[in-house]
């Protein structure tokens, strides 16, 4: 009996960490057609009773929704993934500790991680930075004005109102930066220019942060 042909197909995994749901797709790397996809709601909203205008999400629930999406995809195709593209909600910020930002585990289904020494995620919808607070901030050298919910604005807010909160962490980024850092075992955060611009205080013309603020 002739042996069955071995598939040479390779795939690209796309992962989007949205405000309310997680979406994943598998693309055939040659035809660029979608061969599988899945989506799950995160149900990750946190009720912050202390700050009325706070908008926060639980990163453990977000990663849990990622796992749900991945469980739907065929294991045999996931073995042939050659690269991963990650996108997600912009502007927001999450903090974590270097080297202890997550805890990995292994099973027959594969490898998964759970957030460990991380903060809640402050989303782009956070409204704690009012107009008076924003007007007190240094003027950014950027084509974008700073708004409430932007990563840098939220960091300024915590610096002024809850500095002890920041003492626990050593790295910050968007939720997609956090996921990439954990997947790649990075000690820091590598942020794209698009995400950096969405935080405020980033000059896209020279690809540099405004450090003199």
UniProtKB/TrEMBL annotation:
A molecular function GO annotation: sedoheptulokinase activity
Keyword Ribonucleoprotein: no
InterPro entries: ATPase_NBD (IPR043129), FGGY_N (IPR018484)
UniProt-listed SUPFAM superfamilies: Actin-like ATPase domain
One GO BP: cellular response to lipopolysaccharide
Keyword tags: Kinase, Transferase
GO cellular component: cytosol
Species, as recorded: Electrophorus voltai
Record's protein name: Carbohydrate kinase FGGY N-terminal domain-containing protein
Gene3D superfamilies registered for this protein in UniProt: 3.30.420.40
Carbohydrate kinase FGGY N-terminal domain location: 12-99
PANTHER family tied to this protein: SEDOHEPTULOKINASE, SUGAR KINASE
Keyword Kinase: yes
Pfam families: FGGY_N
Family affiliation: Belongs to the FGGY kinase family.
